From TrEMBL:
Keywords: Lipoprotein, Signal. Residues 1-19 form the signal peptide. This is Gliding motility lipoprotein GldH. Pfam families: GldH_lipo. The keyword Transmembrane helix does not apply. InterPro entries: Motility-assoc_lipoprot_GldH (IPR020018).
């Protein structure tokens, strides 16, 4: 009986903690099994939030200690409902100068919330598509890294800006 009560309290506490994010509008992850192949595009279909507010957009990543680079290059494409596509090549710092991986987390899995765009207004009604692909290369090599190790999940987040 006591064991069931403790389990119930922990379950309720879990839902309270995870659901208390009033800024979250969209927050989805896609797992990357084993290694992230250079041709693997991670896609997210997003129903446009209201067109009167501005939102902040983030690329979320989870990585392990197997990630051996100080930075990460990504190609992010946003396809609009009426056919326009915006493509950005982005660079993110993934480790400090000593090689210690950045991000949050107490285990060997680190979570990184990386800025993509700020103050975006979704003016077109319909479905947007965000496509994310890594564009890593090693110094002095022309061809890209075929299989990127250490990235376990790729996510995309839309949130309401903090009111100041």
């Amino acid at each position: 009986m006591l064991k069931n009560s403790v389990s119930l309290v922990l379950l309720v506490l879990f839902f309270v903690v995870t659901s208390c994010d009033p800024n979250r509008v969209f927050d989805v992850y896609e797992p990357i099994p084993n290694k992230w192949h250079k041709d693997k595009v991670v896609s997210f279909n997003i129903k446009a939030p209201d067109s009167t507010n501005a939102y902040n957009l983030f690329v979320n990543l989870r990585n392990t200690n197997a990630y051996k680079y100080n930075n990460l290059y990504l190609i992010v494409k946003m396809e609009f409902p009426h056919g326009k596509t915006v493509t950005d090549t982005l660079e993110y710092k993934m480790a400090d100068p000593t090689g210690k991986l950045l991000g949050t987390g107490l285990t060997d899995i680190k979570e990184n919330k990386l800025w993509y765009k700020e103050g975006v207004i979704f003016r077109e009604k319909g479905e947007y598509k965000v496509k994310i692909q890594h564009a890593m290369r090693e110094n002095g090599k022309v061809n890209g890294v075929v299989e990127l190790e250490g990235i376990t999940d790729v996510g995309f987040r839309i949130e309401k800006p903090n009111k100041q």
